[in-house]
Amino acid sequence: VLIDKYILGLEVEVDAVSDGAEVLVPGVMEHIERAGVHSGDSMAVFPPHRLREEAVAELVETTTKLALETGTVGLINVQYVVHRGRVLVIEVNPRSSRTVPFLSKVTGVAMVDAAVRSMLGQSLRQQGLRPGLVPPPPLVAVKAPVFSSRKLNSVDTVLGPEMTSTGEVIGVDSTLA
């Protein structure tokens, strides 16, 4: 039996690379849809626009602790809800996620390469990478899902906890406007 509680708030996603001793966080992504929509179906913006600096710092600190406490070496994805300033963990995935290519592209951090080198025993510092949060580049990027509902008849188009998108696109500009 699984019992879930819906928590109203901002859904946030953090992808990171751990070498087992230190953690690199290329960026924090803020979901645009309400919490409860599958992360693969949610639009997301990088860097986050509605989060306070204190919340971002707590997200990075919590992601770092989770990566180290779980013994993760390589990629880790953590999904959160930020509700009234409180950071709540929804899900921890010690693996690659669909947002790794997005973050790698917009931050310039080759996350997969760093993860593989970490798994082969090379520390982040030996790779020339500085642990912690990477300063965001001077851009705004939006990840948007692509749906095939026009081609597939009788597909439910209501967004919810089950993923229905079949792809993603990226938009990059100097501002969110």
TrEMBL record:
**Catalytic activities:** hydrogencarbonate + NH4(+) + 2 ATP = carbamoyl phosphate + 2 ADP + phosphate + 2 H(+); hydrogencarbonate + L-glutamine + 2 ATP + H2O = carbamoyl phosphate + L-glutamate + 2 ADP + phosphate + 2 H(+)
Residues of the ATP-grasp domain? 1-120
Gene Ontology MF term list:
ATP binding; carbamoyl-phosphate synthase (ammonia) activity; carbamoyl-phosphate synthase (glutamine-hydrolyzing) activity; metal ion binding
What keywords tag this UniProt record?
Amino-acid biosynthesis, Arginine biosynthesis, ATP-binding, Ligase, Manganese, Metal-binding, Nucleotide-binding, Repeat
By its UniProt entry, which InterPro entries does this protein fall under?
ATP-grasp, CPAse_ATP-bd, CPSase_dom
A Pfam family this chain is assigned to: CPSase_L_D2
Pathway(s): Amino-acid biosynthesis; L-arginine biosynthesis; carbamoyl phosphate from bicarbonate: step 1/1
* Protein family per UniProt: Belongs to the CarB family.
Q: Name one GO cellular component term.
A: cytoplasm
Q: Which biological processes are named by the entry's GO terms?
A: glutamine metabolic process; L-arginine biosynthetic process
Q: Has the keyword Glycoprotein been applied to this entry?
A: no
The record's listing under PROSITE patterns reads:
ATP_GRASP (PS50975), CPSASE_2 (PS00867)
Q: Does the keyword Manganese apply?
A: yes
Under what name is this protein listed?
Carbamoyl-phosphate synthase large subunit
